[in-house]
Every structure is written in C-alpha cells, then in structure tokens.
Sequence to fold (360 residues):
Amino acid sequence: MDMELLSGDALFEKIEGEMKSGKIVIAEIAPAVRVTLGELFGFPVGANVLGKMTALLKKLGFAHVVDTPLGADIATYYEAEDIKRMLDSGKGKFPIFNSCCIGWRLYASRAHPELLGNITIIASPQMTIGAVSKYYIADKLKTDPSNVVVVGIMPCALKKYESMEVMRNGHKYIDYVVTTIELAQWAKKKGHDLKKLNDEPLSQLMPQSSKDGVMFGVTGGMTEAVMTTLAGLYGEKKEILDFRDDLEMRKKKVRIGKHVLKIAVVYGFQNFEKLYKEIKAGEKYHLVEVMMCPLGCVGGPGQPIAPKEIVTARGNALRTVADGIKERTPIDNPTVQKLIKEYLGKLPREKLEELIYFNR
Fold:
C-alpha cells in the first residue's frame, strides 16, 4: 500500500498512471472548492464553478465526478440517527464532536486524546463518499472495488492524511487528494482554461446532494445540517439556521421535539481551548463543532491565501449556493434515498459500518 503523501507533479503523474492502467478513476469535489477555484482563473470571488470544474476533471481523464456533499449527506443522515437513538434511550456519551475537520481530529489526538471517544464514529464526508462511491460504482459497473480509484479535490492540504486511512477490510476510503491550488496548477500545466469550458453535470450514478451537504464547507454548516436532519427524523419540517453569524464561538440552545439541545460551534483552537475549560468545569453540551480554519473549509490550507473579507465572501457565496438547492436535507435527497434503498440499506450492518465508520 502506498502511504506516501504526494503533491504537485508527482501526484498528478501518479493519478494519470492509474488512469492509463485501466482503473476507473473518480473525482469527488468538496463544497468549498466550487466557490474558490474560480479565483485562480479570473472569476469573481465566490463564483460557483462546479459545472466547469466537472468539465475540467473529465478533460483531465476522470471517468466519474461525484460530490463530496453527498458524502456529507450520508454522514449526516446516519449521525442524526445515532443522536436520535441516544436521546430517545437516555444513553450515550455527550458531547458529540464533529469528524469532518481533519485538522481538529489531528489536534485532538495530540492535545486531548481523552476526547477521541467523543468524536462521532461516522467518517468524514470525503472518506464516506470515497468508500461509498468506490463500492457502489463498482457494483453498478460489475467490477471489483480494487479497480476503482477515488481522488478528493479538497480545500485542505491536511485532507491528504485521510488517504492514509484504511477501512476494516483493508481498502482505502480515499486514494489521493488534490488541493484547490494543485488542481489549478494541474489544469494550467495541461493547457486548460476554466473560463473556456462549458458546464457539465456530475455522474448520473450519484448525481446530487442536498442543501445540508453543501453547507459543510462553511463554519456552522455541519451543525445546521445535523440539527435540521435530526428535526426531520422527529417529523419536524424546520430548518435550523441559528449558526450563520460567523462568530468565532457560538453557544445556542435548539429545541427539537421534547429535547432541548445545547450546541457550541467554534473555529480556531484557541477558541476551542476556552470552550474546553468550560466543559471540564461542568458545562454540558450535546454537539460541538470545531473547525481549524477561519470560517471553516472556505479558509482552508489548500485554498488561495486571502484576507478575512474574501474568505467571508466565499462562505456567504457557499451558503447562497446551498440555499438554491431544492432538496434541503438527506431525507429529501433522492440520491441518498436511492443509495439506501438499492445498496446501503441492503448491506449487513458490519459491512455498512466498514464504509461509513472510522476504523477504530
């Protein structure tokens, strides 16, 4: 198994070699990248270039292009189910911390290993859609998952560490990771100009994500997604929009059914440490979202460096993109429901957990 964290030309050559070998190579696009890649090709800040990026990836040789927010949808659905089960039974270990930020997970493993058991067992969106697309598309194309390679297009260089993680069956969730900046470098090296490409759709095998899935790319989005989906599981048609104020630390209570949930959202580890002092002193929370970067993934260490006002504009643009999606939650998303009906729901529980749980 290749455990090297590749970057630049060596990475591009490795992926191109997989394509030439006859492997089915899939790209998955993180939500934050669609409102940032355009900056490197002369588009206005916050321009949604998802369609053009899909076209670019196909020109680079990818057989299928899928949406990482679909992985966020799947993760959100099962995480909300887990929280509902804990609330209804009165059993469970709160607070639950998010798994989507690899920077947070790495920090916790070094600075606060006692918290690792509180990080949700559901794998990150990149890992979830990597594993699910690898197995689902292999199933649809009647081939072995070992013939499928998945490449994440991510706003964060630390996401490359997720290409070192393996499922319980020994296969990788995700094989390679290309950052926003690296994708622009690769495209320009091959002579592709994003402005000259026409929009193309995502793979029809896994065609869409919900508003909630796209929200993961900006601070508070994961919390909005999980709380809104949890409300849906309780039969409540409402959206939890309380976490869009972009403050470095937010503490709020959300009522869902008979439960009043206390939520905290922070970005920046200094802010987390302030919050953790309160938790150790006895303050109780149900869900805590921690992001390493200012305003979340839109300000990640794989994106073009920009001042805070530009990063804020990216975050607002991503929310606008998300709000334009008709399907609001994973429950409403026909792609998620199709995946559950045709594939995920038919798997024995241990096989499902192989795909969507961390290998702990």
